Amino acid sequence: MYSGNSSAEFAGALRRFAFGPRACATFRRMRPLTPVETVLVAAVGGAILCATVPTFVRNLRASRLAEPIDGLQRLATRASALAAGRPTVLAYPPSVGMTPSRVPAGVNLTDPEGTWDSPTWRLLDFKFVTPHAFAFSFESQCANEQSSFVATAHGDLDGDGLLSTFEIRGSVKAAGEPEMNSLEVWREVE
């Protein structure tokens, strides 16, 4: 029974309540770990973490949804950085169509040499050198008062002809700072 007088008494009452009479006897018989045992437990735990964490991170990065989200974020960040140092009428690079020209259908493809050599992709410092599942486009409209862009990623993750679409927009007004809107998604996983 707990009378409310000491924390040790409370801990004992909690153990008796949570684990029953046999568990209390077991707790009393347990000894603390020696330094060697503690190091051994830490080494085994560290080895397990070293084996599983890199795989988890690799799988997370390989997620098919990471490609369009990261790619559009890179495009929008670079386009906004370019717009910050230019006159509004020249804020964003010219439009460029879907690259690659066809959306990969249910597979990750490696692009042929020169696919990302358009001046716009070079200005935006954007290309894929590894296999990917999405095609990207960049559309810009530049004028004296306001300029804007729309960056889009299309993918056909299961090869059924239905596309998932990811899109981010940005704009800059004369004598203003570039702004980016939030990412919009249609048919994320089809």
Characteristic key phrases:
190 residues, alpha+beta, 2 domains, 6 strands, 19% strand, elongated
Structure description:
- The protein folds into 2 domains: 8-61, no CATH class; 66-186, no CATH class.
- Helix content is 39%, strand content 19%.
- The chain contains 4 helices and 6 strands.
- It has helices at residues 7-29, 35-61, 66-84, 119-123; strands spanning 96-99, 134-141, 146-155, 164-173, 179-180, 184-186.
- Strands 1, 2, 3, 4, 5 and 6 form a 6-stranded antiparallel sheet that branches.
- The mean pLDDT is 83.
Rg from alpha-carbon coordinates: 28 Å
Q: Please state the average pLDDT score.
A: 83
Please write the string of helix (H) and strand (E) elements: HHHEHEEEEE
Distance between the termini: 60 Å
Kindly give the count of domains: 2
- Output the number of helix runs: 4
In total, the number of strands is 6
Major β-sheet annotation? 6 strands, antiparallel
Low-confidence stretches: none
Q: Please tell me what the overall shape is.
A: elongated
State the secondary-structure class: alpha+beta
Binned strand content = 15-25%
Share of residues in helices: 25-40%
